[in-house]
Amino acid sequence: MKKLIQLFRSTQATKRPSVLSHPDKASNTMAKNYSTTRVRAVLRQEWRATILVVSVTISIALGAVSCSGGINLFDTGTDAQLGKQMDEQIRQNPKEYPILNNPAVKQYVQNMINDIIRSEHVQYRGTFPYQAEVIADDKTINAFCTPGGYIYVYTGLMKAVDNEATLAGVLGHEIAHAERRHGTSRMTKAYGLQMILSVALGQNPSQLATIGANLFSGLALLKNSRLDEDDADNYSFKYLQGTKWYPGSIKFFFEKVGGQRGQGDGIGTTVERLLSSHPLPQDRIDATNKRIEEAKLPPPNESNLHGSAYQQFKRTLP
Ligand SMILES: [Zn+2]
Fold first, then answer.
1. What three-state secondary structure class fits 298?
2. Could you please report the per-residue DSSP string of 6-43?
3. I need a labelling partner for 161 at 20 to 30 A (CA). Which of 35, 119, 135, 248 fits?
4. What's 179's DSSP letter?
């Protein structure tokens, strides 16, 4: 994933978040007339009103409450835009991200995603594309999702899991990262309200470059906090409750990667890498078991694991 970080860094000069870079002329003039002291005073005394002005002029939504309970200063359009730009970057780097050229396999994953996002708990199905892509890399047991819902699944993950429900659990988890807007929530936390506002008011234009750089550093995509991971597991459970798949199935993925940890056969390294972005499987197995208990779910069986159909599908993978 370090390579992804480098990838986005190397493109920062040409790619800028236009949502932050085109305040209208009136607001620019207004901002320039403000002294720094004046801005600080406004921020203190007219905090809410100022934020509203800024949010209108630069399309940052006020007070969108993020998944982890914090504030998200970016609007959903920014998530979608970021995702689109990351998706383009990924497609331009087939060496690192070799896209599998197999429409049937891609459609299989897309159909699963389409089923999951029908959940009543998914609110951005009309806003985010929730688009599947498969990366032909058997050594990487992973999946990821950009802000705004571009979902990538590695063939390594598809081959490692034993049934469709487990893959659905992982897809639900990735969808939740986009749905719960973990990336832009973390960006809000990382930059802080005041800095974003000072950029918006034209007080500190050089900070815009910093934000632009970090948007593409992979920050939004890769470093999910433990809280975000737990939140995504929780929502994966909720999404799957309305589907044909066993809702607690993400735990089979943790059991799988936990069991393969440190085997020294090459898989170990991949799993270690995965665990550094998706930490502590035992905690997450325990948390999932608690959710299963609370929902009084009976043990899974073939009718909600879809193991044999999945084994057939696996044979079609290159
Ligand atoms: Zn995650």
1. coil
2. HHHHHTTTT---HHHH---HHHHHHHHHS-HHHHHHHH
3. 119
4. H
pLDDT band at 49 (very low <50, low <70, confident <90, very high): very low
Task: Confirm if 247 and 253 have CB atoms less than 8 A apart.
Answer: no
**Closest to 187 in 3D by CA, of 211, 203, 205:** 211
Q: Which helix (H) or strand (E) holds 4?
A: helix 2-10
Residue 131 pLDDT > 90, yes or no? yes
**Could you tell me the distance, in angstroms and rounded to a whole number, from the CA of residue 283 to the centre of ligand 1?**
14
* Total residues belonging to the chain: 318
Looking at residue 272, its pLDDT comes to 47
Separation of CA 182 and ligand 1 centre (Å):
10
Share of the chain above pLDDT 70, in %: 60
Total count of domains within the chain: 1
Tell me how far apart the alpha carbons of residues 301 and 307 are, in angstroms, rounded to a whole number: 9
SS3 131: strand
What's the domain range around 295?
Answer: 2-314
Bridge partners (DSSP) of residue 71 are 65
Q: What is the pLDDT of residues 230-271, one digit of tens each?
A: 999 999 999 999 999 999 999 999 888 876 654 433 444 455
Which tokens is 175 given?
A: 């969808």
Q: Where do we find the tokens 């396999």?
A: 105
**Average pLDDT over every residue of 203-222:** 55
Chain mean pLDDT for the chain: 74
Determine which helix (DSSP H) or strand (DSSP E) holds 143, and give its type and residue range: strand 143-145
Question: Distance from the CA of 57 to the center of ligand 1, in angstroms?
Answer: 33
Does the pLDDT of residue 84 top 80, yes or no?
A: yes
Q: What's residue 28's pLDDT? A: 34
Q: What is the pTM of this model?
A: 0.72
For residue 275, the CA-to-ligand 1 centroid distance in Å is 10
Label each residue of 230-289 as H, E or C.
HHHHHHHHHHHCCCCCCCCCHHHHHHHHHHHCCCCCCHHHHHHHHHHHCCCHHHHHHHHH
Q: What is the pLDDT of residue 85?
A: 86
